[in-house]
Amino acid sequence: MLSTALKPLEWLYRVAIFSRNKAYDTGVFRSRRLPVPVISIGNISTGGTGKTPAAMALASEALARGLDPVIITRGYGGSAKGTVVVSDGQAIHLDAGEAGEEAFLMASRLPGVPVVKSPKRFPGGMLAVDRFNPGVIILDDGFQHRALARDIDIVLIDGSKLLEKECLLPAGRLREPVSSLRRASEIVITKAGAVEADELRHLLDRQCMTAPISALDYRPVDLVSSGRERLPLSELAGRRVLAFCGIANPEHLRRLLVDQGADMLEFLAFRDHYRYSEDDAITIREQADRLGAELVVTTEKDLVKMTEHGFLALSICVTFENDMLSRVFSINRMG
User: Fold this and answer.
1) How many whole angstroms separate alpha carbon 255 and alpha carbon 250?
2) How far are the Cα atoms of 55, 109, 125, 197, 330 from residue 187, in angstroms, in the given order?
3) Which residues contact 29 (CB under 8 A, 6 or more apart)?
């Protein structure tokens, strides 16, 4: 009922998106180019595609190839204003509240990779060029940020959702219509089984997409504490678990934990990008104790926002297909 009521607003949003994209396509709005190659990784929906671990995996691959990457991110939810350095690759200069949980997580997990928070990506890119002399800029969540030119546009699609039945904002989750994927250089399907991925490929074929389509291997690898102590996934099997998160697709975390054999006592879903208070953390801990939970598990993005209360995060590893990486990091395109 709510989606139907929001249909008129969806139509207005569609007109605004069409007009903006047309302005860029025809040169009325111009994209500014940095003096180094730019790879954008983004999506057409509001979260839930696994973009943060994918961006980290892409940066790690670039680092391994000797490209000295810098990540430019909007830093959603962070209190720091303007263009600021979250990490210089050696030290982290902002906490999760200042940087935003995604930017802080990337800075924490990527030693050797500077992370710059900048709502306007071009100034962030110029700061990165001046201070870090990168071989490549990775633009986090950049598909809709067309003010900065990019050499490669990677777009992630959540294969666990029925894309063709999704509506545009605010009636649904789509930031842009599916037809916008024609701008993509690479389309990557995430969180999908073989059947779901095939159905999505058929949909994209019907939409006449020309970008190569690949899949992302998205899987849990272990459990990690705030202090970076790690436990094997086998610790979940048969254990009494309370889980919580504040992400766009909370069901995905619940399903991953159950698939690992967790006895799910309670699952608490907060709104996306929820900022936990100390009282929230205490309440979660007390609820876990009342239920007799042996483990309290969340996501890595949520864990970086929590004070220490013995919580664990399910650590995720993502792997791109080799052919896709070869195309993205080809010598000609990296120029």
Assistant:
1) 9
2) 14, 25, 24, 12, 17
3) 20, 23, 146, 147
Contact present, 41 and 61 (Cβ < 8 Å): no
Among the listed residues 139, 152, 125, the one whose alpha carbon sits nearest the alpha carbon of residue 35: 125
Q: How far is CA 231 from the centre of its chain?
A: 24
- Whole-angstrom distance, CA of residue 131 vs CA of residue 296: 41
CA atoms 76, 77, 83, 87: torsion sign: negative
Rg (CA), the chain: 20
The tokens describing 201, both together, are: 């490929």
**Which two three-digit tokens encode residue 13?**
């949003």
Separation CA 59–CA 159 (nearest Å):
23
Please provide residue 71's backbone torsions phi and psi, each rounded to the nearest 5 degrees.
Answer: -95, 130
Q: Which residue is associated with the tokens 């962030």?
A: 124
pTM above 0.85, yes or no: yes
What pLDDT, in 10s, does the model give residues 40-80? 999 999 877 889 999 999 999 999 999 999 999 999 889 99
